[in-house]
Amino acid sequence: MSPVRVAVLDHTAALGGAELALARLLDALDPVDVQVTTVLFADGPLRGLLEDHGHAVSVLPLDQRIATAERHAVGASLITSARAAIAVLPFVWRLARALRRLDVDLIHTTSLKADLLGVPAAILARRPVVWHIHDRISPDYLPRPMVALIRSLARVAPRRVLVNSHATAATLPKVRTTVAYPGLAREQFAPEPGAPASPARAPDDPRTVGILGRVSPTKGQREFLRAARRVHAARPDVRFRIIGAALFAEQDYARLVREEIRALGLQDVVALVGFASDPAAELDRLTLCVHASPTPEPFGQVVAEAMARGVPVVATAGGGVGEIVAPPGAAEPLGWLVPPGDVAALADAILEALDDPAEAQRRAVAAWRSVERRFPIAVTAASVTDVWRSVALGR
Known about the structure:
Layout: E1 4-10, H1 17-28, E2 34-40, H2 45-52, E3 56-59, H3 64-67, H4 71-80, H5 82-87, H6 89-102, E4 106-109, H7 112-125, E5 129-133, H8 144-156, E6 160-163, H9 166-170, E7 177-179, E8 208-212, H10 221-234, E9 239-243, H11 251-263, E10 270-274, H12 279-284, E11 288-291, H13 301-308, E12 313-316, H14 321-325, E13 336-338, H15 343-355, H16 357-374, H17 377-392
Parallel strand pairs: 1-2, 1-4, 2-3, 4-5, 5-6, 6-7, 8-9, 8-11, 9-10, 11-12, 12-13
Helix pairs in contact: 1-17, 6-7, 10-11, 10-15
């Protein structure tokens, strides 16, 4: 059979979690089966990353006021403001023309903004559309009007809906979904913990607890700092690292994080690392990786990434994180889970993991084996390819 021709749409070229997952997916696809052109609504690092890996990329600029607006704001404005909706019509028309020129079999959208803008463009281009949803479509994660809109459209607009976890699927009632976990590339895996070639971890040099991810209220850096103060009071030798930078419209939160460090008196024990171009190297420096999201996450890529490096994990329960850390049928614990927003429980779990390195190592080994089996990128690529071919064939 001839390759399925796909246009992937993304509103951003910043390197967020969904964009890095997209890059890994494109690297893993078989060019005999699919031919993909990625259409970005802005220029930026993602374009360079994809082109460096040999992928076709086209940039069709969207009004920056919409492209860079926080997703809650743009969703609300598109729903409530006719003026905002009219403002995007010229872009939708240009996008539809670009899609017709590409002559693809289907359109794949990979962000909520791309979902909303891709639907009318796909209708005008007369091509089926597949949504790949990376957000929980739930009022605790998105504004209620946005939830209502996405849920309603998901039932009628896309031919198929891919989701990044069963937790995300559960927020789309009455919608047929296919789970395609954000898989990990082979190079993201360290050798099994304890193997001769695995990264050396010196728990007394000093013990280092880190949180990795976009600096954002949904990632819980401030909760991490409040737990760090409790841990520091009990174990003054422990050091902490906040790895990541603010993206999109979250600079105010980054300022609050810096203020929190000063207010808690943690200037001498907390390092603000900023954006890490090599997350694996940062993870390898950690004695323990913390996931502190106060709101349930759609998936929680950093949790799987830390496990793949053999780093013990303490994470907040809920959303897709439970599928990673406590999958059904797991024979032994893969990490520590605590309630979202419970700073005391988070600190207690960190101390428990630090004070029992043998147990932390046992859980890290079990976790490495679990993610190595469940989350290889080849499985993701096969699932997505199957959906694309099914849609292209009109099934």
